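thoughts on my protein:
***
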Amino acid sequence: MNRYMELTYQIECLQDVAVVGCSGRLVRGAALDEFRSRLERLDHLRVLVLDLSNVEQLDAGGLGVLLLLRRWALQQKVQLKLVDPSPFVRRVLEATHLNSVFEISSLEEALCILRAPEPPPRYAVA
């Protein structure tokens, strides 16, 4: 197996947002297990962005991990975004109908959403 094809990722955290740049193969194996475990150890998050633009392969194990991360995010009240999936990843998500389960956007759209100020709190008037 070529080492350049193995899953590599870089996590950048800024306040309550983590952006994870992934590349290589999101496929069943030790690297994928370590990836999921590392992301689930992130705390104090509001948004988790997975940049999938450089992911070349995705198998059932990779889909399973994405679904496990989605469940974890829902339990932790973290917004999970898949950003710029590669053409292959996009085809797999569409073929499995998981494109309707995940929030998928371009990097530009995700950055605009993240930059938008939070709405002011609403107060009830009695």
Summary: The chain has a mean pLDDT of 89. The two ends are 67 Å apart (CA to CA).
